[in-house]
């Protein structure tokens, strides 16, 4: 077999890169066999230091917000721990109920090994084939660890950020080359934008269009980018919620579908507000909130933006690409009006909370020469006041052509259950001469249906020659334009009314 050649013959000296270098630590390599030269010290400029300091400041703000979020989760957990009533042996650790044959059914918490009743326990699954039980405290503890990222860091994560770098004072101010915490850029500088007051929570792209002829506001939610991660997997389940301010909360809220496991959702979904008038466009603000849907708990707020509708031009679509902001929830006023179950109202910071809105109704009028009478269409209502304890109403509409024409003067729509934005699409006919119509007034009232007791009045309006403004104009156009259907929105008011029958 022969002898093995000497090591030097296998790897000649003319190949220095192949020689091991015992002086180098593991993971390092020599550069061409040449000795290391000390790197010339390069001093950072003040401009570069300012950029670094702004990045550190942004990181500090984000860390502060994250610690606040984790702090809220921890305080909720501590409140649960302080409120325990049992010993976890013979009595349920949480509610204190007697356990055993004479008491409630008993299970053992997988984490704390305490006894708990099935009402205070949470059945869950793990990697094991069979289900396990947790007490609500340990279940909440797991949720805190998931949401805080502590499951990964083996403890609550805490960043150690570098100290800001000193900047020489003898130099004049230099133009910033990177945006500061309150100057974060949007994706497209040509689009209208508003800078966030704190660290960025993500950007939202959407468009708004006020269709003046149809009295509708179209909001197209296109996409979001770089949303704050809300789940333990570093992602979120985002959806967008719209709210017109000021206004009754439930009647004004619209929302998109939820997209799962993404920080860059693409909705391409259009939400429409009906019954938006020029007056609304001058005084209302659209609040756009991005939230994270949680199947097992409360949905979490990510960020929001607000657009004053008076910035929009009629029939011109306006595109927005805006960084989301974290805004303190608006305070809620008490129940307004004397009506039972009136919805809570949200108010603008700079507006009073005493604006009572009953809603609007879309009515069509047409005098038919062929049928020899007036055709009244009740199309829909929007943003009705809530009259029931569940925050909704069961609305229907009454018509009354005055002075009284007997039973033929009154009509009713069908009742729509549990809604503040009902669609009726019903038409009613009054057999009346055109010449007599000018002497009449049409009383329109919207009611909330209640079983076994009197119905609640929501609001109404009266059209006719004695009316004013849009109500008079609508009636006059109907008389002037025979055989032409004319639709108009009318604001409901809390006027004097008779009891519904």
Give the structure's gist in a few sentences:
By secondary structure, this protein is α+β, with helices and mostly antiparallel strands.
Report on the architecture of this protein.
This protein is α+β, with helices and mostly antiparallel strands and 501 residues long. Among the domains are: 75-152, Herpes Virus-1 (2-Layer Sandwich), CATH 3.30.40; 202-324, Immunoglobulin-like; 360-491, Sandwich (Immunoglobulin-like). Helix content is 17%, strand content 28%. A hairpin with a 7-residue loop joins β11 (285-292) and β12 (300-308). The termini are far apart.
Q: What is the ordering of alpha helices and beta strands?
A: HHEEEEHHEEEEHEEHEEEEEEEEEHEEHE
In quaternary terms, these chains amount to: single chain
Task: Specify Rg, calculated over alpha carbons.
Answer: 34 Å
CATH class of the domain at 360-491: Mainly Beta
- Supply the CATH superfamily name of the domain at 360-491: C2 domain
Mean pLDDT: 75
The rounded distance between the terminal residues' Cα atoms is 116 Å
Query: Order of strands in the sheet with the most strands?
Result: 10-6-5-13
Please estimate the helix content.
10-25%
Q: How much β-strand is present in the residues?
A: 25-35%
CATH architecture of the domain at 360-491: Sandwich
Question: How many strand segments?
Answer: 22
Figure out the total of helices. Answer: 8
GO cellular component, one term: dendritic spine
Region (Disordered): 1-47, 162-193
Membrane topology: Peripheral membrane protein
GO molecular function, one term: lipid binding
